């Protein structure tokens, strides 16, 4: 177990409060026990002291990585299940008689339709005791049940698969899986705050955030790979049942609401109830914070449109001389680049852009917009050919650049939102950010079938360019303030003031 000593860093923080509070070292010793709120009780005076006080204050355990891995895998499976039928639209239409493009789109759209009404419940749940743990088990139960229900038509004769009731088992499965979406997406920043020290929080948030996108990326390859023909559609569905059972097994091995000892002052604040406990007061406070509103709209619209565009990319490129396999590889490349960007820029933020998120966001928005501009100019337009000559590989490169820098925007905004809104819980800030992203995705997915293919790419990529420029303008106007970090410093100094009293009490003879 890693231990953070307050005394060893007192001089550094007093000299320069811009430095990190926590730099853990390896140790297996344990702290004295806390009461149920996480505070230490002064036995001699019969009252609680505001925080800890011996040398070893914050501890982090290697089990945090296991918890994060299980959470990330559940998020990955949820997105993979959501993308099932859109990854193999031709095969799905052949296996289920009567299923057309509109049905495939609806099966995809359930993800955002259901996400929006379920999100307030998930955000409220995070203000309750054991909210993370309850949400984890509810989400995984929904995902597993969804994968099982979708296989019911596979047991029926082929002529009955087009039956109205058989088709609705697909919709019920997609709806149940969609209900798990907020659980595995909106609580990323809370999970990192509860389990990880300050200098690893951005990395943990980035991994949790990007694991969901990994589901789409793998879906581009796994779907056509397991179900290249109509007869093999059941194989894809059965494999997903097996994948959905793995997070449940991982949770049974080990998964907790929080570690035994807080890894940081923020985790301690969660234990001691320093966060706003009223969900409705938190939402009201968030909506009155102008910087937060600029923050979430800068990311939400662009990320939402990008997510929806990735979901229909194979269909969008069908009439542009790209095979389903080639379209899948283009989407896979863009998704993998986005995941790599999220994973890469998490540690980069921790190391080089600590409390400099505004500068990082300006760089990411600018570079991702340049990639989308290249891709836009490489595609034919309704007015003629492409302005820039292109091949499959130049398109892959353009999408890779756009995805790489786009991938770093989401995690950075999740962390910045949590900083701007403290003491409003991370699940509320993350929930509102993801709500806007899903609303943008929903609008896009409903509008996209109305756009002719010849206009589709021009309109969508132009929208992405506009969102990128708008995002830069909003980030410029946004005022940075790291309230959560300021609270960490305050909690630290509070504990330092209580230290002399505690030491005197320990030195008194029995």
Number of strands: 5
Helix fraction by DSSP (H/I, runs of at least 4): 55-70%
| Rg measurement, Å | 24 Å
Structural class: mainly alpha
- Strand neighbour order, sheet with most strands: 2-1-5
CATH architectural name of the largest domain: Up-down Bundle
Average residue-wise pLDDT: 77
Instruction: State the CATH superfamily name of the largest domain.
Output: MFS general substrate transporter like domains
User: How do the SSEs run, as a string of H and E?
Assistant: EHEEEEHHHHHHHHHHHHHHHHHHH
CATH top level assignment of the largest domain: Mainly Alpha
Number of folding domains? 2
Briefly note the CATH topology name of the largest domain: Growth Hormone, Chain: A
Region (Disordered): 15-46
InterPro entries: FLVCR1-2_SLC49-like, MFS, MFS_trans_sf
Biased composition (Basic and acidic residues): 35-46
Subcellular location: Membrane
Summarize the structure.
The protein has 510 residues and is mostly helical. It has helices at 10-15, 63-82, 84-87, 89-95, 101-125, 131-149, 164-179, 181-185, 188-195, 201-226, 233-253, 265-272, 279-287, 290-316, 324-352, 357-377, 392-421, 426-447, 453-477, 483-507, and strands spanning 2-5, 25-26, 40-42, 47-49, 56-60.
Can you walk through the features of this model?
With 510 residues, the chain is mainly α. The protein folds into two domains: 59-276, MFS general substrate transporter like domains (Growth Hormone, Chain: A, Up-down Bundle); 277-500, Growth Hormone, Chain: A (Up-down Bundle). It contains 20 helices and five strands. Helix 6 packs antiparallel against helix 7 (164-179), helix 14 runs antiparallel to helix 15 (324-352) and helix 16 packs antiparallel against helix 17 (392-421). Keywords: Membrane, Transmembrane, Transmembrane helix. This is Transporter, major facilitator subfamily protein.
């Amino acid at each position: 177990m890693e231990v953070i000593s307050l005394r060893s860093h007192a001089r550094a923080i007093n000299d320069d409060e811009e430095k990190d509070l926590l730099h853990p070292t390896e140790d297996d010793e344990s702290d004295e026990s806390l009461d149920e709120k996480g505070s230490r009780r002064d036995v001699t005076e019969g009252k609680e002291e505001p925080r800890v006080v011996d040398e070893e204050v914050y501890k982090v355990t290697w089990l945090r990585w296991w918890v994060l891995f299980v959470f990330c895998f559940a998020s990955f499976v949820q997105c993979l299940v959501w993308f099932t039928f859109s990854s193999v639209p031709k095969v799905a239409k052949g296996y289920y008689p009567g299923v057309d493009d509109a049905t495939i789109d609806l099966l995809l759209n359930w993800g955002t339709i259901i996400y929006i009404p379920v999100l307030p419940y998930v955000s409220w749940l995070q203000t309750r005791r054991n909210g993370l743990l309850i949400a984890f088990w509810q989400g995984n139960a929904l995902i597993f049940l969804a994968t099982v229900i979708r296989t019911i038509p596979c047991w029926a004769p082929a002529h009955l698969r087009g039956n109205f009731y058989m088709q609705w088992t697909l919709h019920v499965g997609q709806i149940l899986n969609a209900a798990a979406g907020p659980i595995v997406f909106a609580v990323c920043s809370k999970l990192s705050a509860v389990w990880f020290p300050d200098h690893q929080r951005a990395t943990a948030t980035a991994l949790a955030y990007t694991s969901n996108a990994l589901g789409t990326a793998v879906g581009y390859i796994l779907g056509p790979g397991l179900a290249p023909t109509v007869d093999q559609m059941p194989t894809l569905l059965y494999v997903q049942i097996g994948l959905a059972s793995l997070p449940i097994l991982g949770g049974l091995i080990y998964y907790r609401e929080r570690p035994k000892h807080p890894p940081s002052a923020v985790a301690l604040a969660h234990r001691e109830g320093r966060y706003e406990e009223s969900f409705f007061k938190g939402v009201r406070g968030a909506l009155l914070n102008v910087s937060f509103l600029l923050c979430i709209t800068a990311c939400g619209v662009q990320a939402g449109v990008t997510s929806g565009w990735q979901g229909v990319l194979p269909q969008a490129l069908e009439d542009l001389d790209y095979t389903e396999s080639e379209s899948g590889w283009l989407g896979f490349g863009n998704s993998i680049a986005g995941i790599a960007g999220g994973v890469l820029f998490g540690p980069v933020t921790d190391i080089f852009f600590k409390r400099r998120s505004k500068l990082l966001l300006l760089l990411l928005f600018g570079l991702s917009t340049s990639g989308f501009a290249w891709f836009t100019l490489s595609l034919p337009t309704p007015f003629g050919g492409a302005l820039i000559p292109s091949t499959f590989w130049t398109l892959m490169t353009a999408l890779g650049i756009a995805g790489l820098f786009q991938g770093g925007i989401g995690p950075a905004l999740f962390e910045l939102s949590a900083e701007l809104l403290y003491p409003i819980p991370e699940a509320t800030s993350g929930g509102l950010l993801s709500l806007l992203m899903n609303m943008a995705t929903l609008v896009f997915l409903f509008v996209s079938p109305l756009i002719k293919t010849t206009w589709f790419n021009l309109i969508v990529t132009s929208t992405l360019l506009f969102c990128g420029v708008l995002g830069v303008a909003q980030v410029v106007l946004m005022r940075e303030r790291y309230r959560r970090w300021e609270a960490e410093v305050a909690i630290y100094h509070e504990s330092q003031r209580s230290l002399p009293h505690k030491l005197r009490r320990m030195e008194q003879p029995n």
